[in-house]
Design brief:
diaminopimelate biosynthesis, EC 4.3.3.7, Aldolase_TIM, 12 helices, 4-hydroxy-tetrahydrodipicolinate synthase, 8-stranded parallel barrel, TIM Barrel, about 15% strand, alpha/beta, 10 strands, two-stranded antiparallel sheet, binds the ligand O=C(O)C1=N[C@H](C(=O)O)C[C@H](O)C1, about 45% helix
């Protein structure tokens, strides 16, 4: 059984000459796990999943599968789509993963019943656990606490990124369903864990895996201290559409070879990269 606890590093997909750079990806994945990440997320928002071909997605999963097996940790794969049939197809193609991160169907803004049915259909189409990925500022579909709990009924857990600790977040965490709630906004990892989240999925952990892993373990004054110390880093990393700043920092540190992102993402402004590097713990 997979334990969704601690920090899962959401990996960038490095490119070199326009192709997926498997060597850089392997290096990054191992670095995150050496730093103490509880597992890896491939093909999340950070992985530019929407900009990869099906073949590239499989190559990314193969590299991450090998590294996760070496370290004995779980691999979660992003596998969402706007439509239910497409999401099911993508979920089935992600058989190399241990669990799936399935985004709330975006753009169409289906009804709440439609969203619950979507997750029930995807979850029942695969054998592995499905984590629902709620990110209303990206999907355009806000789910109130009541609907989040209905979704949670049909999946194994939820990655919750509302961009704030709002009333729905408080109600979701207070419900204490026994199923894991993972924080998806890096800045809210610590507050959400204090309120009952079991961990988080964070892009920032690619850069500072040790600090984020420690943050997820620290309930005392040290946790609050680390939270405060990491906020400037998170702020700089998300100052531009993710993962541009993150990739530039990783390339600057030699973790990946090339900072390239795919259009319509663009190279970041140098001042944000500098700010992020200066904020490294
Ligand atoms: O990679 C992801 O998926 C993540 N999602 C959040 C987002 O929607 O930006 C942020 C998190 O750091 C990683």
């Amino acid at each position: 059984m997979i334990v969704f606890r601690g920090v899962f590093a959401s990996l960038v997909t490095p490119f070199a000459g326009g192709e997926v750079d498997e060597g850089s990806l392997e290096r990054l994945a191992a670095r995150c796990l050496d730093g103490g990440a509880a597992g890896l997320v491939a093909l999340g928002t950070t992985g530019e999943a929407a900009l990869l071909t099906p073949d590239e997605r499989i190559r990314v999963l193969s590299v991450c599968r090998t590294v996760c097996d070496e370290y004995g940790v779980p691999l979660i794969a992003g596998a969402g789509a706007m439509g239910t049939a497409a999401a099911i197809a993508e979920a089935r193609e992600s058989f190399l993963a241990d669990a799936l991160l399935v985004v709330v169907p975006y753009y169409l803004r289906p009804s709440d019943d439609g969203v619950v049915e979507h997750f029930a259909a995807v979850a029942s189409s695969v054998k592995m656990p499905v984590i629902a990925y709620n990110v209303p500022y990206r999907t355009g579909k806000r789910l109130a606490a009541e609907t989040l709990l209905r979704v949670l009924d049909v999946v194994a857990g939820i990655k919750h990124c509302p961009g704030a600790i709002d009333d729905d977040t408080l109600a979701l965490l207070a419900a204490d369903t026994g199923k894991p709630v993972l924080a998806g906004d890096d800045a809210y990892l610590y507050p959400m864990m204090r309120l009952g989240a079991s961990g988080g999925v964070t892009a920032s952990a690619c850069l500072a895996p040790g600090a984020f892993a420690e943050l997820a373990r620290s309930w005392d004054e040290r946790g609050r201290e680390l939270h405060g110390a990491l906020l400037p880093l998170v702020d700089a990393l998300f100052a531009e559409p993710s993962p541009s700043v993150l990739k530039a920092c990783l390339a600057e540190l030699g973790v990946i070879d090339d900072p390239a992102v795919r259009a319509p993402l663009r190279a970041p402004r140098p001042e944000n990269v500098e700010r992020a590097l200066k904020a490294l713990p």
